[in-house]
């Protein structure tokens, strides 16, 4: 079975979502279904059907989270010695060689990726180009607008 990399923070976020869905949302939906059932004829009861549909979506999400956590390889980058090399979970500051514009990304699993929050999927073109490189290296990255060169300014294990 394939294991998928995930940061400690990503696993914690999924566990918190799972707990919320099973301990708060699921019981409330059961209560809503019971209340809607008391309203009478189930064939024409919109509240009942809406609650059942919502329950199906919540149960699917719970199963999805359980599967992701079961197949996760949780990597705690803070426990790995700092070598200056870009690896999964590290936070990397890179600078565009032409414009000198710098950005910082944390390389995370697909489920955790959120470019607006600086979390870059390990499978993205930039992350794939950076993995295995070291501070000071200049890395060419294929982008839709052409080849862009980035210099790795700093690698942090946070």
TrEMBL record:
GO molecular function: DNA binding; RNA polymerase binding; translation elongation factor activity
Pfam families with a match to the protein in the record: GreA_GreB, GreA_GreB_N
Domain Transcription elongation factor GreA/GreB C-terminal: 83-156
Gene3D superfamilies: Transcription elongation factor, GreA/GreB, C-terminal domain (3.10.50.30), Transcription elongation factor, GreA/GreB, N-terminal domain (1.10.287.180)
Signal peptide as annotated in the record: none
Boundaries of every Transcription elongation factor GreA/GreB N-terminal domain copy: 5-74
Domain of life: Bacteria
Gene Ontology biological process terms, A to Z: DNA-templated transcription elongation; regulation of DNA-templated transcription elongation
UniProt family annotation: Belongs to the GreA/GreB family.
Chain's role: Necessary for efficient RNA polymerase transcription elongation past template-encoded arresting sites. The arresting sites in DNA have the property of trapping a certain fraction of elongating RNA polymerases that pass through, resulting in locked ternary complexes. Cleavage of the nascent transcript by cleavage factors such as GreA or GreB allows the resumption of elongation from the new 3'terminus. GreA releases sequences of 2 to 3 nucleotides.
Name of the featured protein: Transcription elongation factor GreA
Gene: greA
């Amino acid at each position: 079975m394939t294991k998928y990399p995930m940061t400690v923070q990503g696993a914690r976020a999924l566990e918190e979502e799972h707990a919320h869905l099973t301990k708060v949302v699921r019981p409330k939906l059961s209560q809503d279904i019971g209340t809607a059932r008391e309203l009478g004829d189930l064939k024409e009861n919109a509240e009942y059907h809406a609650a059942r549909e919502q329950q199906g979506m919540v149960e699917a999400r719970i199963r999805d989270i359980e599967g992701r956590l079961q197949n996760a390889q949780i990597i705690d980058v803070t426990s790995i010695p700092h070598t200056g090399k870009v690896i999964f979970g590290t936070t990397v500051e890179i600078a565009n060689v032409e414009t000198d514009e710098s950005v910082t990304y944390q390389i995370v699993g697909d489920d955790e990726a959120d470019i607006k929050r600086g979390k870059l999927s390990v499978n993205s073109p930039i992350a794939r180009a950076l993995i295995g490189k070291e501070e000071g290296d200049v890395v060419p990255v294929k982008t839709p607008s052409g080849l862009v060169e980035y210099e790795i300014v700093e690698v942090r294990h946070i």
